[in-house]
Design a protein that fits this description.
3-stranded antiparallel beta sheet; 6 strands; globular
């Protein structure tokens, strides 16, 4: 799974199914890309939580959806900024 973050975003933590995980870090068009490698056996689900610090922005986040057998479940929780 790859997550394309806002420019200058910093990855603070990775959790897979509630356990600490790791992510590869790359860039694409000036944006950091965090990639988590995982096995996904048939009829199973995984929960990936990326904790990032990102600069404030405007507008609504864009989630690109790939057609899948089961619909993609995405939840975005916006932390309040101080």
């Amino acid at each position: 799974m790859s997550y394309l973050a806002t420019g200058r975003a910093l990855l603070r933590a990775v959790n897979v199914d509630g356990r600490p995980g790791t992510a590869g870090i790359g860039t694409e068009h000036g944006h950091p890309v965090y990639t988590v490698d995982l096995e996904l056996p048939r009829r199973t689900a995984r929960t990936i939580l990326l904790t990032l610090t990102e600069p404030a922005g405007t507008g609504t986040p864009v989630v690109l959806r790939q057609p899948l057998v089961r619909p993609l479940d995405v939840r975005i929780a916006d932390a309040s900024c101080h």
